Structures are given as structure tokens and as C-alpha cells.
From TrEMBL:
PROSITE patterns registered for this protein in UniProt: FBOX (PS50181)
UniProt xrefs under Gene3D superfamilies: 1.20.1280.50, Ribonuclease Inhibitor (3.80.10.10)
Naturally occurring in which organism (per UniProt): Dioscorea cayennensis subsp. rotundata (White Guinea yam)
Coiled-coil region list: none
Name of the featured protein: F-box/FBD/LRR-repeat protein At1g51370-like isoform X2
Region (Disordered): 1-28
Domain F-box: 26-60
Amino acid sequence: MKRKEQQSALRRRKKAKTDSDEQNDEDRISKLPDELRSYILSKLPTADAMKTSLLSTRWKHTWTSVTNLEFDFGQFPKFKGRNSAFTKFVNQAIITHDGLDIQRFHLQLYAYRSKLPYARFWISFAVRHFVQELELCIPKIALDKLPDLLFTCESLRLLKLDLSGNVLKLPTSVTLINLQTLHLESMSFRDDNVVWELISSCPKLENLTLNNCSMYGMKILNICSSELQNLSLLNCQTFSSCEVNISAPKLKTFRYHCSLVRKLSLEHVCTLTKADIDLHGSLYFVKRDKELSNRAIRILKELDNVRTLTLSARCTEYLSTAIDLLGSFSCNLRTVKHLDVAFWSHKSYIKVLSSLLKCCPTVETLSVGIDMTFTGYSDVPLKNVKTTIPKCLLHKLKTVKLRNLVGVNKLDLVKFLVKNAEVLEKIITVSKEGVVKERTVEWIKSRAQSLVNSNRKTT
């Protein structure tokens, strides 16, 4: 009996200690300076930050001084009256905000399916509170025109606009003098000058992305910026009849994942170090049109200063077609040190790879992979293709990485590399399952010689 009483007393003491520790933990957080508690709440979604007002009197108004405001209609509970409840929630958060400057304002209305006049008021609120990072995802049905004062916001450092279905229209005055990052997505440009005017108003612009934008009706896309360092043109539609002129003396990286444009021009781009090219569009017409093949080659010729070059499987298919139609292709890529190329599994690609490597005589690392996402068609069944090993001296190539390669293509490529790469040190293979193996060239040659000797003995 005495032992049970002792155990019961011990449990009570442990529980009291736990309650005391929890109370102390709560007190320690509550006793933090207001600025620090506000900073912590700024890392939470705005809806969660608002709920902390129920904790205690000391927490009641802390959330009103958060510097990050995030409103996502897609995360709002689905129930009857959802639209009006979301509007009331955002209005309450904005009206009760204590007036401090806003670091980041994020408004996601992608799932909103009706007119929302309050959206203009919310955006204007962020601008008037000197917002630095503004991210808007608003379909045309919710808001068809952005407030003019957005385009004269001097505090903006980052602006992301995802305006599904909207045509970008600029006010008379555009001055975004401190903007460094601009991301435009899912909108239309109907005027040749609209993008140029917007970029020209951003003298400090360093990062520019155009993603899934329509260029319908445009003949020229001019991108001119003295400070631009990173440029991405991704999945842009109706691009084939457009001429793209890029003038950016400080450009370092260039991603182009679009259809073939009529002409691509890179002017005053001496600092470009990295390019990633993925050409979209139907290959049915490319295989019958020399002009389209020439367009693909001309894009490569514009990259004569790049050091790291990545080419997708569709891009190498364009080059393969160019060889079939034109007999060969050539361009000066003497600065390329790192080359990453992909192919489709049904193709014998030694010919196009050797042509490409001749354009890159100083390449030091080569990565070759198979794109398994496309099965496609083949003009000639691979099993009937007889591949010869072309001569293509590679004086600098030291490291090769092979991804997802199997069968005859893998053997032919290894033979090609061992034959032509004078200073090759190692070959790294990565299987579809992710198994990595690293072999020295000496090991490969020794293994090959052993197989030859074994065959001789059996005969």
C-alpha cells in the first residue's frame, strides 16, 4: 500500500513539473519582444497568424504587424458562401493591419470564378505600404486590369504576375526603378512594344522570366536591359513567326524552352556562361523543311560565348534532321567546356553527337542521357542501323557521364569516346534505377582486351 502511494505521489510530481515546464515555455515565447514575435508570425500563412490572437491578450494584436501577407483562395475551405467569406477574411486582415511596411504580399485567386472588385483595393493597399515582393495569380474573370499605381511602385524588388487570359496593358507612366526580378506568366502580349516598354522602366532588372505567354500578332520581341543577368523564355505560344532580339551585356544564363522563332539574335552578350535549349513544335514539318533546320542551327550559332550548354532530346532531333536534309551543320562553340545532351531512345545518335562535338573542340565534361518520356517514331528500326565510328579528335575531354544508356547505343558511344578522346580519364554511368558506376579508361580498355583475347581462345 505504501509503495502504491509513493508511485502515485511520484506521478503527481512529474505531472506538475511537466505542466510547469509547458507554462514556462509558453511564458518564454510570450515574453519575447513584440518585433520578434511578429517576425515569427510572418513565417506563417496569414490565416494561421490571425488565429494566434485567441491565445492571450498579449497575442491579440501581434499578428497585425506581420510583414508577410499571404492569401490563397485555393486553400480556403470549400463551403457555401466561400467567395464572400474569403473576401471578408482578406478585408479584415488588411483593415486591421497596423500600417507597417510590407515585405511580401501574395494573392492567389486561380480558383476564383467570379468578378472580384476588391482585388484592386488589396493590390493598392500593398503598394501604398511599400511592398517589396508582390506575387499575384489572378484570372481574367476575377480582375481584367491591374491598378495603374502598381507600375509606379518604387519599393518593388520582385514582381510575379500570373494573369491567366489577360492581355498585358501598361498605363502611360511606368517607373519600377528598383525592380530586380520580373516574372510574367499566362498572359498575352498583343503589342510589339509592350515588353520592351516594361523592361525599359526597370533599370535595375537582373532576372526576367516569360512563361506560357502568348505572342499572337507580335512580329518582334525586344529584350534590352543593361543589368539583366538571367533570362528564361519558357513555353511561349505562337512564337514561330516572331523575331526575338536580346541585348544584355551582363547576361549570364539563358533558358529557351519554346518553338523555333523566325530569328533569334543575341547582341552584346559577352558574359553568357550557361545556356539551356529545348526546341518545341512538331517534327513532322521539320523533317521536310530545310528552313526550320537552319533556324535550329542559327540558334546555336548565337551561343558562341557560352561555357555550359544543355540541349534537350527534341533539340538534338532537330540537329539530326538538319544533317539528313543539309548533309552537315557547323557552328563555332569553342568556349563550351561542359556539354549536356539528351536523345530519344529509338535513335542512333553517334552521327549527330560527333557533329556537335566538332563544334565544341574544347569540351572538358560531357553528359549524355536518354529521354525516356518520348517513344515516338523512327524512320529506320534501330536494330537494322549499322553505325560506323567517326573520327572526331577531342583534346580536352576528361570526364563523361552516361544516363539511362543501354544496348548497342551505349557500346557504340563508349567505342567512339575511347577512340577519339585523347585525355579521357573516366566514364560514369547512371542506370534508370539510379545505380552509379565509375570506370577509368584504363579499366575499360583492359576489359575490352580481355574480351578480345577470350574470343580468340574460343575460336
